[in-house]
Design goal:
Blueprint: E1 2-6, E2 12-14, H1 22-28, E3 38-44, E4 47-53, H2 58-74, H3 82-89, E5 91-94, H4 96-111, H5 121-127, H6 139-146, E6 155-158, E7 164-167, H7 180-194, E8 200-204, E9 207-211, E10 220-225, E11 235-241, E12 245-250, E13 254-258, E14 261-264, E15 279-286, H8 289-302, H9 304-314, E16 318-323, E17 327-331, E18 338-340, E19 348-352
Parallel strand pairs: 17-19
Antiparallel strand pairs: 1-13, 2-10, 3-4, 4-8, 5-7, 6-7, 8-9, 9-12, 10-11, 11-18, 12-15, 13-14, 15-16, 16-17
């Protein structure tokens, strides 16, 4: 017997700002600053996007247009997008922004030794996570598809104008969905900052980007949603943040169940199966949205020990890891900024040191 649960991949909600987070919002605190902000809500990239800025309202119209333009160029499901053209013809010229996103994604693939692989897309389709027609593929099919999964075979020739000629092997298809929202939130933050905005909150379906602090001088409070389906409040804890992106990946928001087994959308590129290395949620806090987006998925795939080692080797971001045995690990850079919610106050909270 099969059942399905499907929501946005990224699972962060923020406190004190967005009406659409009402179930969580009401459980947390009253919005004390929204009256100072211009805001907009729209649907793009398969999710609801909500932006609040302390600035000129006309900036929001331009921001929305930028998001729509990026979606039209990068959506794997839109006919005529650069990614669709590449997957169909196996060769395509990418625009400057698309090139930046592709090369950034490939860098994360390399840095994580393939724990993130943008060419896993055909395997993801076979599981039905892109179509909603969920099934557990047979091993022969998975092995056959995995033979064409290898991000290192993506050839990118960057031109002087910033565009690039991209070539992929005959049976390969790619998808940049694992990083594009992180890039987009960073792009919008840069755009607003360049136009004089020094306080804003950008929520692209759970990919949250903060600019500065709230207008009352307090840091933003970001609620990290609980990965446990039996949660009463839905909130694992709260993080104080400013001028960073906060991006969470978890298997709990897009999955199906069959014969009592849960199968989620985060696949291990090495096996073609859902990654199950003891983690149920990974949050990345940093100043590079694209990288944070890619790391939230790849460190989930790696598991706690390898993810902790990766952080110690790089230390240009912070992280919150939640394990399936109800332990929470945070890197030392956010140790003073994160608090468990009352519901999870008895959880074992451990700090990962350098």
């Amino acid at each position: 017997m099969k059942s399905v649960k499907m929501n946005d991949i990224k699972r962060i909600v923020y406190m004190g700002a967005l009406v659409s987070c009402a179930p969580i919002f009401c459980a947390c605190q009253k919005n004390d600053v929204s009256q100072d902000y211009s805001s907009t809500t729209f649907f793009a990239m398969d999710t609801v996007m909500e932006i609040q800025i302390d600035g000129d309202e006309t900036l929001l119209t331009e921001a929305q247009q930028q998001v729509m333009d990026l979606e039209n160029r990068l959506s794997v499901t839109k006919d005529g997008s650069e990614v669709s053209k590449l997957n169909s013809a196996k060769i395509c010229r990418f625009s400057e922004d698309s090139t930046e996103i592709l090369t950034g994604a490939l860098q994360v693939c390399t840095d994580t030794d393939g724990a993130l692989d943008i060419s896993i897309y055909p395997v993801l389709k076979e599981w039905g996570f892109t179509t909603g027609e969920y099934k557990v593929p047979d091993e022969e099919t998975i092995e056959d598809l995995l033979s064409d999964v290898d991000y290192s075979q993506v050839q990118v020739a960057v031109r002087d104008d910033g565009q690039a000629d991209v070539v992929i092997p005959e049976n390969m298809e790619i998808d940049l969905g694992s990083v594009v929202k992180g890039y987009t939130s960073q792009m919008l933050a840069d755009y607003f900052a360049e136009n004089g905005v020094d306080s804003a909150l950008i929520n692209l379906g759970g990919n949250v980007q903060c600019i500065g602090r709230k207008t009352n001088g307090n840091p933003w409070k970001i609620a990290i949603k609980s990965p446990f389906t039996d949660s009463k409040t839905g909130i694992l804890g709260v993080l104080e943040a400013e001028d960073v992106s906060i991006i969470t990946s978890g298997g709990y928001e897009r999955y199906f169940e069959e014969d009592g087994q849960m199968y989620w959308h985060i696949l291990d590129p090495a096996t073609g199966h859902p990654a199950k290395n003891g983690l149920v949620s990974v949050s990345i806090i940093g100043t590079d949205g694209l990288k944070g987006d890619g790391l939230s998925t790849s460190l989930f795939v790696k598991g706690l020990d390898a993810a902790s080692d990766y952080w110690r080797e790089h230390q240009d971001f912070d992280a919150i890891f939640v394990t399936d045995d109800e332990q929470v690990y945070i890197t030392e850079g956010v140790a003073e900024k994160f608090q468990l919610s009352q519901e999870y106050a008895d959880f074992d909270l451990k700090v990962i040191n350098k």
